[in-house]
Specification:
This protein is mainly alpha-helical. Helix content is about 60%, strand content about 10%. The chain has a two-stranded antiparallel ribbon. Helix 1 crosses helix 4. Belongs to the aminoglycoside phosphotransferase family. One of its GO terms (cellular component) is cytoplasm. It is found in: Cytoplasm. Keywords: Cytoplasm, Kinase, Transferase.
């Protein structure tokens, strides 16, 4: 998940209330795979979110994402064991692809 596929909604009908997440759409990377990959990617992007970084809440943002996911889709002990490694792998992938994109189109 990332900022481009999170659907936000106002809590009130008049639109003046605080925003809340009401849905997530991500058909671009649709595949059959392990669920733990979804949450590891979501947690990575939660940590990289500019607001989370500027307020120094990167880890708490990722933790909130994990709590919500785990509440609906409980992770197994083996998935939890590998979660940190999967997040690190996604961070490496994001940095590598970002550097490649910058080199291709400065």
């Amino acid at each position: 998940f990332n900022d481009a596929n999170i659907i936000m909604s106002s809590k009130s009908d008049d639109g003046d209330g605080p925003n809340r997440v009401c849905g997530v759409i991500d058909f671009g990377d649709t595949t059959y795979s392990w669920r733990v990959l979804d949450i590891s990617i979501a947690m990575t992007y939660a940590m990289l979110n500019p607001y989370a970084q500027s307020t120094k809440h990167s880890l708490s943002s990722a933790a909130a994402m994990l709590r919500g996911f785990h509440h609906v889709y409980p992770l197994t002990p083996i998935e939890i064991k590998h979660l940190r490694l999967l997040i690190c792998c996604r961070l490496c992938t994001s940095v590598t692809l970002g550097a490649y994109s910058l080199r291709q189109n400065p």
